[in-house]
Amino acid sequence: MKYQVMLKILTLLLSKRKITAKEIAERYDISVRSVYRYVEELNVCGVPVDVARGRYGGLTIADTYRLPTGYFTREEYAAALNALDAMAGQVHSESLISAREKLASRQKDEKTDLSVSGNIIVDGGTWGDTVKFSDKMKVVEEAMNGGRCLMIDYISREGEHSKRVIDPHVLIFKQNVWYVYAFCHTKQEFRTFKIGRIKKARFTGGTFKKKNIKRSEIPLDFYYPAGELMPVTFEIERESLPDIEEWLGIDNIEPRGNSFIADVTLPDDSRLVSMILSYGGAVKVLAPASLKERVAAAAKTIAAQY
Asked: Do 125 and 90 share a structural domain?
């Protein structure tokens, strides 16, 4: 009984996206306390259900959350829903209503597994992750194109969690990373948010009017002030050139003898050393000397562990 009710609550949330604990309790003849207990167990299982108390509160599920795809084609969903609607009109049955809600929750917004903008397909997720990142991109795009406010659960580079309402205006793709430039209601100013650091996102029901923003107004050097950038010279082996071209960019690499030289300006942080070491001996730091010393020290530390 317990898990049947949990599944019903999940499908109801997927169908309605927002509902009060009292409504769920009355629908399934359980206590409000039991509803909150079931919601806690859904969260433990990885289902992103938010609980907002107060006059305008309720239970909400992130708009990026979807059940696994692959059960039905879009045409099969439509046919099944039509059949259930026809049967429900003749015979009143809680089972029919429940089945229709489950199917409707799966059909909603399942237009594609990838975010599509015009003739461009965006899939910025890691290999093996075909849905999560693309669903976030899709929700941000819908909010941006429709002038719809988003509530996001954001994790900063320092690991700080915060919930913010944002008005997405522009998507930015820089150094193989996707960002959204949005007005932040918390800070009352425009901020740049990394899509990959948005854990959950849902529509608030509010709307906004988009401002006309010029490219020059967007701080495209975000996160890295001039003092945190370092000019670096690399020597690159020919065999590893394709992979490193994707990292540094083809325009920054020139042939020199049997190897290649890259003169680039990169963020001076701990990830720089890790990235260099990930290529083994295929990338050699020629300058500056301080970076050479850091790479050498990190390589010795790794070697000592084995």
From this structure: no
How many separate domains does the chain show? 3
Cβ contacts of residue 213 below 8 Å, gap of 6+? 169, 170, 181
**Given 196, 217, 238, which residue is the final one in a domain?**
217
Contact 282, 242 (CB under 8 A): no
**Which range among 41-55, 65-79, 197-211, 276-290 shows the weakest confidence by mean pLDDT?**
65-79
Range of the domain at 152: 115-217
Do both 195 and 262 map to the same domain? no
Tell me whether strands 259-267 and 229-237 are parallel, antiparallel or unpaired: antiparallel
What digits encode the pLDDT tens for the residues 137-192? 888 988 998 999 999 999 887 778 899 999 999 988 876 678 899 999 999 999 99
Q: Is the pTM of this model over 0.85?
A: no
Residue 201: name the closest of 67, 106, 63, 109 by CA: 63
Question: Contacts from 251-258 at CB under 8 Å and sequence distance 24+?
Answer: none
pLDDT of residue 265: 87
